[in-house]
Amino acid sequence: MLDSLLALGGLVLLRDSVEWEGRSLLKALVKKSALCGEQVHILGCEVSEEEFREGFDSDINNRLVYHDFFRDPLNWSKTGEALPGGPLGALRAMCNRTDLGPVTIALDSLSWLLLHLPCTTLCQTLHTVSHQDSCPPGDGSPVGKVHVLGLLHEELHGPGPMGALSSLAQTEVTLGGIMGQASARILCRRPRQRPTDQTQWFSILPDFSLDLQEGPSIESQPHSDPHIPPVDPTAHLTFNLHLSKKEREARDNLTLPFQFSSEKQEALLRPRPSQATSHIFYEPDAYDDLDQEDPDDDLDI
Amino acid sequence: MAAVATCGGDAGSAGSAVATGSKSNVTSFQRRGPRASGTNDSGPRLVSITGTRPSVRNGQLLVSTGLPALDQLLGGGLAVGTVLLIEEDKYNIYSSLLFKYFLAEGIVNGHTLLVASANEDPANILQELPAPLLDDNCKKEFDEDVYNHKTPESNIKMKIAWRYQLLPKMEIGPVSSSRFGHYYDASKRIPQELIEASKWHGFFLPEKISSTLKVEPCSLTHGYIKLLQFIQNIIYEEGFDGSNPQKKQKNILRIGIQNLGSPLWGDDICCTENGDSSHSLTKFLYVLRGLLRTSLSVCIITMPTHLIQNKAVIAHITNLSDIVVGLESFIGSERETNPLYKDYHGLIHIRQIPRLNNLVCDESDVKDLGFKLKRKLFTIERLHLPPDLSDTVSRSSKQDLAESAKRLGPGCGMMAGGKKHLDF
């Protein structure tokens, strides 16, 4: 599942924490896109360019287009190298791109952007960037998919911005793990479909390629409670709730006390044309007393 | 509300008051006689707008929400001039479905639509509306669908209660297009010719504002101001408020606003607790309701209230809307595997029903409602919770019952913690 993360497009949030860092996964995904031949843009805000590029071999490094906002985020040195508008300007510039191939934009990190930019502006810009492929340009040519990978440190932000970004993201990868084995919980929100939730165990090799693994061995997992079978309330009763076949047949053959013959029944069921007078159909029952005398006569009233 | 005499005022005189604006609307007694405006055959002079009917309780003009089950719970339908607020479920699956049912109902009835969204192009939203179930072919399929769910015992001819064989079965089914509410097939798309025959206006926020525009800070977020101006223009130009006397048939404007309050509208109410624009959304709702009360329009708003950080704001928003329906889906929550809820996809909470020209509101006595999305239908049913047989039974609401049924008998120690009331 991790390797098909990039197939969907849109915004992918990589939520990491202090124990399980996500930059290596980000770099692994960046390397994967670069090897697929996509254009890769990196907005580096948190670590220096040398540190980010370390570990990649030269042909991948040549494909990465790096926008450095770490060294001089506010453009104080005024050398003219830094892009105008800061990181937001760079993102907006990526909204209006002219080349139409698939592109991957890696934000390192989204937390930095969230802390330095107003949340609503960032959300609006991310939405525009990641939905470019759904709005085709005027000439009708197909636009390649845009993947935006954002590294988000979930401990730095409150529930508000996290919730807002989660609702915006197509895929959310939360990093965790047990005892040195890293896992990624992938929540995929496809529009108008049920979100899928999967956990994938993985590890990152030194050359930043992704190695998918099975989970840790069973004995290391804590024992869950044994499954309590649902209690059948009809067992162990002092009275019998079930009917055997013979009993069921006997019940069916029993004549009901006020059962009419079937002709009378059909006559009653047939809708009558006039309901002016009501008829009383009386069929004497087996136990009925046909004595016309008033049974209360022998009472002395 | 009493001062605004046009819509929702006297019994049934909504449309006629708009048509004859010069007449005073003090009384609803009108002389029967030849009238210029189109009259109905009997009773009060109701201008017959397709897709509307007067409420049987107070004569309010009602439109259907697109879901007959929801119409019943709201007292017959949605009153013209009111706002229906839907609190979205966590992944926005069922609330967008209700939104689409509302719009599709507008198309089937020939109402004018106004669709506003910040994340999706309104043209795309309209393409994805569900197809209406109108003719008898669909009725056959529907009956077959219901039949498959019936238990086998009901096929046996009734032996004891045989007189009830003649009674009509109490099953709801698709109806012809002249009735009030319609049924929709969520798996099929609405036919293209219906969309083209309908009149709609779209408001897509990224197109309407340019992001580099420097706007001076004011009390309403820029996106909201634009939307209100757009709505006001449409109402004025097309004569929904009676300003241009409509020579043709009167119509209802159905306004649908998607994901209001999300950061894509420029509102930071979901991001922070006390932001700069904390009153922007409440002011928007206030102005919107004023616009709706003076025109023949209905509005549906879906709002991600689970993201709003300041809970007091949610209370303000509830007060400023007329009908508030909350959706809670079981996807991803622990209730998904709870056997109590296995037949349902989520819960519906009717949080508020308005009191329009009444002292009491039309509250139904059923408070536990669950919904499920079957293959073609969205049904809302009463939730039947089994009796609680665990040790922690308490006399509080059914919500607690459901929660305590999950915890299998932890004993008296649990009474101290959690949401239990003290039991004496």
Query: What structural category do the secondary elements of chain A indicate?
Result: alpha/beta
| The first-level CATH class name of the domain at 8-133 and 144-171 in chain A | Alpha Beta
Please identify which CATH superfamily of the domain at 8-133 and 144-171 in chain A we are dealing with: P-loop containing nucleotide triphosphate hydrolases
Write down the overall mean pLDDT of chain A. 79
The N- to C-terminal Cα distance of chain A equals 93 Å
Please give the share of residues in helix of chain B: 25-40%
Task: Assign a percent range to the helix content of chain A.
Answer: 25-40%
Query: Can you tell me the residue ranges of chain B where pLDDT is under 50 for at least 5 consecutive residues?
Result: 1-24, 35-45, 146-155, 170-177, 400-420
Order of helices and strands of chain A: EHEHHEHEHHEHEEEEHH
Strand content of chain A: 15-25%
Largest interface: A-B, 33 and 34 residues
Task: Report the principal-axis shape of chain B.
Answer: globular
Describe the structure.
The complex is a heterodimer of chains A (301) and B (424). With 301 residues, chain A is α/β, with parallel strands linked by helices. Chain A is built from nine helices and nine strands. Chain A has a domain at 8-133 and 144-171: Rossmann fold. Helix content of chain A is 27%, strand content 20%. In chain A, strands 3-2-4-5-1-6-7-8-9 form a nine-stranded mixed beta sheet, sandwiched between helices. In chain A, strand 8 (196-204) and strand 9 form a beta hairpin. In chain A, helix 4 (86-95) runs parallel beside helix 6. In chain B, the strands form three sheets. Chain B has a nine-stranded mixed beta sheet, sandwiched between helices. A three-stranded antiparallel beta sheet of chain B has the order 1-2-3, with no helix packed on it. A two-stranded antiparallel ribbon of chain B has the order 6-7. In chain B, strand 13 (369-373) and strand 14 (378-382) form a beta hairpin. Chain B is globular and about 75 Å long. Mean pLDDT of chain B is 75; it is low at 1-24, 35-45, 146-155, 170-177 and 400-420. The interface between A and B is medium-sized, with 33 and 34 residues. Chain B: It is found in: Cytoplasm; Nucleus. Chain B: One of its GO terms (cellular component) is cytoplasm.
